Amino acid sequence: MTQSAPVELLVCTTCRRGLPVEDDAARPGALLHAALAEAALPEGVHLRPVECLSNCDNGCSIVLRGGPSRWTYVYANLNEAHDVDTIVEGTTRYHATADGLVPWRERPVHFRKNCVARIPPIGA
Amino acid sequence: MTQSAPVELLVCTTCRRGLPVEDDAARPGALLHAALAEAALPEGVHLRPVECLSNCDNGCSIVLRGGPSRWTYVYANLNEAHDVDTIVEGTTRYHATADGLVPWRERPVHFRKNCVARIPPIGA
């Protein structure tokens, strides 16, 4: 396999995860982003905060994308306290592919059950 | 405004819209794609079939994207019989923007209520 394009892990940092959040309190999405910034993501994965991924009813949400040859995936219902390891695992497997297509059985169970959408590659 | 990039309107053609579909019958997603192929989409919008956008619980689904400077949007719960005009209107407004951000009040009501996700531009 040739060298793959870098991967972006986008995290919705404005997500309230359906909770009432005081104006000056950190939001669940921001906490998820902060936790991922401390996690062991593979080299070549760029963590990026995004203001609202418009999946507010099923947050917290992330997007995985990576260059013109990979499918893009949107995953939902993630919890900043419980799901960091799942995101790291799923991102690592995604990063290891050239086309973004991780075999179904190799995807974390949460990813299998909470895929909101996938979008085809733009094409090289 | 400078000339914008072309827009892609991706339609999930394998969508069953939750219905039992006989193997040899056209699927709702394929019918939606066929209806859009006959519709008055603006010049510069490319209609493209996709096999499964992985939004199966809330189909039919479409994606709007358009070059490195526009946000990408995923819309759900579309009906091949009722929503073609809505898709044409929303696509036309999206196509008219440089960044993909149509003001909220200018979006079709169905788009406002059935946005599954939005994904930021890759950047020029």
TrEMBL record, chains A, B:
<protein>
    <submittedName>
        <fullName>Predicted metal-binding protein</fullName>
    </submittedName>
</protein>
<dbReference type="Pfam" id="PF07845">
    <property type="entry name" value="DUF1636"/>
</dbReference>
<dbReference type="InterPro" id="IPR036249">
    <property type="entry name" value="Thioredoxin-like_sf"/>
</dbReference>
<dbReference type="InterPro" id="IPR012863">
    <property type="entry name" value="DUF1636"/>
</dbReference>
